[in-house]
């Protein structure tokens, strides 16, 4: 898979409704995954969206999720820029440059869903998410 750059929106509990709305607007294929599907089945937010992705026939990609557990409503930016793909060296290179002189909120490391993921804010205040997918062997 080639690396892609797209907006990643953050919602205060209504990510499912918002992402379904964007599907109505743009069409395409929508995949939604809840916190419950990723090991938090008993948590109060189990039905909230941990990750959603809309891919349209026009080539648009829009990602979104509800605020992570433990974050206050409205905390942080309502968006990030997402970089994703499976080219480890390329994406780590972007991460190093983007995080240099900025701040890291989630270190770039393996996550519960199996990918390497990190979050940082660059020196200009722009929030970034980098996800390095597993390659099939």
TrEMBL record:
SUPFAM superfamilies: Glyoxalase/Bleomycin resistance protein/Dihydroxybiphenyl dioxygenase
Gene3D superfamilies in UniProt: 2,3-Dihydroxybiphenyl 1,2-Dioxygenase, domain 1
Every Glyoxalase/fosfomycin resistance/dioxygenase domain range: 5-130
InterPro entries xrefs: Glyas_Bleomycin-R_OHBP_Dase, Glyas_Fos-R_dOase_dom, PhnB-like
PANTHER family: PROTEIN YJDN (PTHR33990:SF1), PROTEIN YJDN-RELATED (PTHR33990)
Protein name (Swiss-Prot/TrEMBL): Glyoxalase/fosfomycin resistance/dioxygenase domain-containing protein
Species whose genome carries this gene: Streptomyces viridochromogenes (strain DSM 40736 / JCM 4977 / BCRC 1201 / Tue 494)
High-level lineage: Bacteria, Bacillati, Actinomycetota, Actinomycetes, Kitasatosporales
